[in-house]
Description:
The chain is mostly beta strands. It has one domain (2-119). It is built from 1 helix and 6 strands, in the order ββββββα. The chain has one helix at residues 116-119, and strands at residues 2-3, 13-18, 28-35, 49-56, 69-76, 100-101. Strands 1, 2, 3, 4, 5 and 6 form a 6-stranded antiparallel beta sheet that branches.
Amino acid sequence: MSAIPQEGDLAQEAEVIWLEDTEDLDYVRQALDKVSTRKGKPRYERDGRMIGYSNLTPTAPRSADSGLFARRTFYLLPHDRPNQPDDPECPYRVGSPLEAVDPRTVEAGKVGTKTSRSQASGEIVSTRS
Length: 129
C-alpha cells in the first residue's frame, strides 16, 4: 500500500537516505509505504528504480490497524523525464507526476515540494511546507 505523504505522516522520520546522487535529477516520486521495519532499505516492488528512502526514529509506533510502519520511498519509473531527458516523446517533458517533488527540497519530517526545476516550466508551482 502506498500513498502521497502529508506533513503529519512524517513526524517520526529520523533521516532520508539517498541511494543515488540526486543533483542531476529534476524530480523524484515519493510515496508513503507500509513496511515491516523502521530502518534499512525496504523492499522495492515497482517498475523503475528506488532512489532513496526514509528511516524512522527508534520509538516510531507501528500502525494500529496493520502492525506496519509508514515510511517514504523515493523512486523513478522508466518513462520519467530524469531517465529520458532528451526524448521528445517523454510524457513529462513539461510538468511532473502528482507525487513528484524536487529532491533538493526533501528533508526528514518534511514533504518535498514542486519547483520550476521539477516542473521544467520556469516557475515555482507549489510551496508546501
